[in-house]
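Risk mitigation, structural track. In case the binding assays with FE2/S2 (inorganic) cluster fail to produce interpretable data, a predicted complex structure has been prepared as a fallback.
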Amino acid sequence: MLVCHCNIITERDIVSSIQELLTEDEWRLITPLQVYHVMSKRGRCCGCFPKVVDIIVKTTEAWHREKATPEAEVVDFVGRLRAEHDRMARQQAEARARMRKIRGAA
Ligand code: FES
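Fallback model:
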């Protein structure tokens, strides 16, 4: 099934790229940009990205189901996600504080 009309990319191409990324690191957070990078493509209109995200979720779930990943590793992964989320939130707060300071100085 054709998913990306701009780059003529099928669902099979996308699944294959996701599996390649999961082979490198099965706990990485995969984004549409990473998937397109593997295929040496770039998003143009990016209208296909929501569908690509659906395919990423479906493929990643199937990957871990097939590998029968132990529960402890899944819990560790959730912890890593939470830590990454906290780190991003801190960086956003710091950036907002810097912008307020710059605007206040002007
Ligand atoms: S449909 Fe995929 S980039 Fe436009």
